[in-house]
Specification:
By secondary structure, the chain is α+β, with helices and mostly antiparallel strands. The protein has four helices and 13 strands. The strands form three sheets. The chain has an eight-stranded mixed sheet. Strands 4-3-12 form a three-stranded antiparallel sheet, with no helix packed on it. It starts with 6 loop residues before the first strand and ends in a 12-residue tail after the last strand.
């Protein structure tokens, strides 16, 4: 019977700057670096557009997390999206990732701790993956802004192995809480 507590539904990585990542049974993460063997791992920014702007920026996007509930919503809108498809490293279930404040720590399995740094800012590549998908992951909030649903970014505070099925414990930072913004 599947876990009903917050947990890791899947993990993925890619050594190449491809949009989607390959799902595997587990990934190893290194503190201050990211997912071993993943193209976005590193102390400094690895995202191509950010490297062009300033390659010395700290990498606040070492690990990309998406909530599996997004895939459920997208399926209801006629899209076929599975773990790893949108470039995430960790797919969770049972956690409202988008509602977490900046600095939230996610304790995963027996060893790993990730610190949430901000929101993923979805781009045209999502439409290139599946036409029309972008308007379902970037939606108007009704107050003149937008809600970015394509997950959150994190840095590795404590390394170890993340395995599909690992429990996730959410540790909120001290108040006042700072809402997530794109990083």
């Amino acid at each position: 019977m599947p876990s009903t507590s917050p947990h890791v539904a899947a993990v993925a990585s890619s050594p190449d700057h491809a949009f989607s990542k390959q799902v595997s049974a587990s990934v190893r993460v290194v503190a201050g670096h990211g997912v071993v063997g993943d193209t976005h791992a590193g102390v400094t920014v690895q995202h191509r557009s950010r490297v062009r702007a300033d390659p010395t920026q700290p990498n606040l996007r070492q690990v990309h997390l998406i909530h599996a509930e997004l895939f459920d919503q997208l399926a209801g809108a006629g899209f076929d999206v599975a773990p790893g498809d949108l470039g995430e490293n960790v797919t969770t279930r049972g956690i409202d990732l988008l509602a977490l404040p900046r600095g939230t720590r996610l304790a995963i399995g027996p060893d790993v701790v990730l610190e949430v740094t901000g929101l993923r800012n979805p781009c045209q590549q999502i439409n290139d993956f599946q036409a029309g998908l972008l308007k379902h992951v970037v939606v108007p909030d009704g107050a003149g802004g937008v809600v970015r649903k394509a997950g959150v970014m994190a840095v590795v505070a404590q390394g170890g192995t993340i395995t599909a099925g690992d429990d996730v414990v959410v540790h909120l930072p001290d108040e006042p809480h700072e809402p997530l913004a794109p990083v």
